[in-house]
Specification:
This protein has about 325 residues and is mainly alpha-helical. Helix content is about 50%, strand content about 5%.
Length: about 325
């Protein structure tokens, strides 16, 4: 079974990455692998100045959500997925009533396929479905009146979107590949992470299919010692860029308040930081291999790492009330 058959083809329009399941190796990564990019040659955030790629069009409601017109949203996830956490955090932040339907890897396809998608997170809301974490944020921000996750100021919005796109395409895929590379040999620990919170039948089935799931993840993610090392270097490079951005003492990445850029960085950095406040099962840091624990502690001790951990402490439980 190939990558597309296992994880599903995701959005590749207008420079967007292929992303969904936390083990998917995205198109942005494939391009970088072929070009032999290193962190020192990766484009900096400034590449987007004044020319952020346009977002793929999504269906949105323009009427602000109220208690009278809101419909219960359904969020289909794999709980440990950091892209699922990104969508979940946005719904919590916007005070959107929703029901999460968590699923185990591979078995999630039973839920996504019958709801018009193939990957997670998948949001069902207002008669439409949204199959990309960023589209979920854009849609729900508009539904809730706008200007909660994306600034109304055009220049600031472009800056937020540029950072979000880079984190989606670079940080997310490389953080998950490195994390999986450390944990695939820890089968019992990985099984606990993948089954916590999922339906009982799926939790019972996963041990049976676990060897196949691990083989598919390893193949889809192209995990080798060399590729994992390259992904860790890219994560370090992005953290250094965020370090530099925070060097002027700012509290948030763009402007004076929390935006989708901050949310995306914190959520997608989770596999290399193990933040307190993550809304799904992560192993205890003391339970992971020593080499992984050492690197996590090293990343936590950067300005970018401290920033992401602070966001989980100070911002993860904050919300905007629906009018």
């Amino acid at each position: 079974m190939n990558e597309k058959a296992f994880y599903g083809q995701r959005d590749t329009n207008v420079g967007r990455s292929v992303r969904g399941h936390p083990a998917t190796f995205g198109a942005a990564d494939q391009k970088a692998e072929k070009s032999g990019c290193s962190p020192s040659t990766l484009p900096q955030f400034g590449r987007y100045a004044g020319s952020c790629p346009m977002r793929k069009a999504v269906t949105v409601r323009t009427t602000p959500m109220t208690n009278d017109n809101v419909h219960l949203a359904v969020l289909i996830t794999m709980p440990h997925s950091h892209y699922s956490e990104k969508a979940r955090w946005a719904l919590d932040r916007l005070s959107v009533p929703y029901q999460e339907q968590p699923h185990a890897p591979l078995l999630h396809r039973l839920a996504t396929t019958r709801n018009g998608g193939s990957s997670v997170p998948l949001l069902l809301h207002g008669g439409a479905h949204f199959t990309d974490s960023t589209d979920i944020l854009v849609h729900m921000d508009a539904v809730c009146g706008g200007d909660l996750l994306y600034p109304r100021d055009a220049g600031l919005r472009r800056e937020v979107e540029a950072l979000e796109t880079q984190f989606d395409e670079e940080l997310g895929p490389h953080a998950r590949r490195w994390a999986y590379a450390q944990l695939l040999s820890e089968r019992s620990l990985l099984r606990q992470v993948m089954t916590r919170g999922v339906p009982q039948l799926e939790a019972a089935l996963l041990p049976v299919i676990m060897p196949g799931v691990i083989r598919l993840i390893r193949a889809a993610l192209k995990i080798t010692p060399q590729s994992a090392a390259r992904s860790l270097e890219r994560v370090r490079g992005i953290f250094k860029e965020v370090d530099a951005r925070l060097d002027d003492g700012r509290q948030f990445l763009v402007g004076e308040r929390f935006t989708a850029a901050d949310l995306t960085f914190a959520a997608l950095a989770a596999p290399v930081l193990f933040p307190t406040g993550y809304r799904a099962a992560y192993p205890a840091l003391n339970d992971v291999p020593a080499a992984m624990r050492t690197e996590v502690l090293r990343l936590r001790d950067t300005a970018a790492g401290r920033f992401a951990l602070r966001l989980y402490v100070q911002e993860r439980d904050r919300s905007h009330a629906v009018a």
